[in-house]
Design brief:
Spore Coat Polysaccharide Biosynthesis Protein SpsA, Chain A, Glycosyltransferase family 25 protein, eight-stranded mixed sheet, transferase, 36% helix, alpha/beta, Glyco_trans_25, transferase activity
Length: 278
């Protein structure tokens, strides 16, 4: 299976990091140059300041998906350049026999956000299982995509008009070219972004999206600042954890009603074992 890593020309440090990660398993990858927001500006594509990094990231993924859609490989693995791989990742990055038949997307990472899945595994391999998504999810740093899905998905999609982050586009049923698309999660995950796994003090790769946003002169949304100001705002902040928990439980109940004949579960997808030093 072909493997791509999306990497900015200005970040050779991240490229070296990915070479070390794949080198642990004797695996190689092809570098795909990420879209720099400055290049979009030079082409006359003017980006909203509060979404500049995310839109540039979306263009990078969509450009690569178009290449994959025009290629010959039935499945291709895509990685962003700040992921860490589990010790058994190689078992899933060579052949494709473990991928569920007819799969369009297989998410390889965990983003430490709640997911909602079909309980019965679609496949089992090397101590891991794949489960079908029943709701949208977050994160696009490591996934496998089918050629036909890549071609259909990227053909007419414009990040400027979609106004969504690439993960919200890829892993949201309303954005799929085929509503019956088969999208799965590998569990435990074999990849995780450094910013998700490690506390801020231990991170060595700052977010490029955050850097772009700061360079472009982003300012906080005054509506959000007002929302959390004053006594009412402090109450909102103090109760946010409970309200988020309640929202997740209510979503589970709604999904259980929608998929009344499907056994399902919700969880924060775990990351596999990693003994290699950072």
């Amino acid at each position: 299976m072909k493997r791509y890593v999306i990497n900015l020309a200005a970040r050779p440090d991240r490229l070296a990091h990915m070479e070390r990660e794949f080198g642990r398993f004797g695996l190689t990858f092809e570098r795909f140059e990420a879209v720099d927001w400055r290049a979009l500006e030079a082409r006359g594509i003017h980006l909203p300041r509060n979404a500049i990094g995310h839109i540039a990231c979306s263009y990078s993924h969509l450009d690569l998906l178009r290449r994959i859609g025009a290629g010959d490989d039935p499945y291709v693995a895509i990685f962003e350049d700040d992921v860490l791989l589990s010790d058994d990742a190689a078992a899933f990055l060579g052949d494709t026999d473990w991928i569920p038949p007819g799969a369009d997307l297989v998410k390889l990472e965990t983003y430490a956000t709640m997911g909602y899945f079909r309980r019965r595994p679609a496949s089992t391999h090397a101590g891991h299982t794949t489960h079908e998504f029943l709701h949208k999810h977050t994160g696009s740093a490591a996934y496998i995509v089918a050629r036909d899905f890549a071609a259909d998905f990227a053909r007419d999609l414009d990040p400027m008009t979609a106004r969504h982050k690439i993960d919200e586009l890829l892993f949201s049923p309303r954005c799929w070219p085929n509503p019956a698309a088969k999208v799965y999660q590998l569990r435990p995950a074999i990849a995780v972004q450094e910013m998700v796994l490690l506390p801020e003090a231990e991170r060595q790769m700052p977010s490029d999206i955050g850097t772009f946003t700061k360079e472009f002169g982003w300012r906080p949304d005054p509506r959000q600042q007002k929302k959390y100001a004053g006594p009412i705002g402090r109450l909102r902040m103090a109760t946010k954890g409970f309200r988020d928990w309640l929202k997740m439980r209510m979503r589970f109940v709604r999904l259980a009603g929608r998929y009344a004949t499907v056994a399902m579960f919700m969880e924060l997808v775990p990351f596999g074992t990693r003994t290699a030093p950072r």
